[in-house]
Write a structure and sequence with these properties.
Blueprint (H helix, E strand, L loop, with lengths): L1 E5 L4 H13 L2 E4 L15 H16 L3 E10 L6 E2 L12 H11 L9 E11 L5 E12 L15 E3 L12 H7 L1 H16 L1
Parallel strand pairs: 1-2, 1-3
Antiparallel strand pairs: 3-4, 3-5, 5-6, 6-7
The chain binds inosinic acid.
Length: 196
Amino acid sequence: MTTFVLATANPHKSLEMRAVLSELGVELLERPDDVPEVDETEATLEGNALLKARTLVAATGRAAIADDTGLFVDALEGRPGVFSARYAGEHASYDDNVAQLLGELEAVPQESRAARFRTVIAVVYPSGEELCVEGVLEGRIATGRRGANGFGYDPVFEVLGTGGRTLAELTPEEKNALSHRGRALRALAQVLAASS
Ligand code: IMP
């Protein structure tokens, strides 16, 4: 059984990562409470994921796993991207960020609202060995919120190939089966299996 310390303290992400990884034979340890939150200062998802994982390795001496996710909207030239968590300001809530997004896209017609989620997952070992994998989910930004599941931008992200359902209208199992995070985690499992 492979064991990693999980860098994220976000309970939604943690739940999704556990659900997928437990089926793939990977055990996750909670991030210790005394390890401070890492400022995401890098310009890329890869950079931030590596930063978070390296911090956990330094603090715990154990192999660590971290994810960084961004929503990239074509009509906004890729924004909010790496700034997805802080789109409406430094301490913005999920709801603030969604309102900001819907506001900026108000005049943009349905056919021009294409977007994608990208998740990069980094694994860092105490030896210094590092690896990154990526998962992408294509979709479109809805004109309003729909669905009660998930978190973040889920209520306004219509998933390509689902008849226009938003991520928040999918069950947790459906989301994990096709999401950016689920895809990145399964890519990770393949890399780990190939190197063991
Ligand atoms: P982070 O920097 O990886 O924590 O993610 C940046 C922001 O993207 C978060 O604050 C969420 O608002 C959003 N986000 C991350 N993952 C998801 C997801 O799976 N669905 C919807 N929004 C997400």
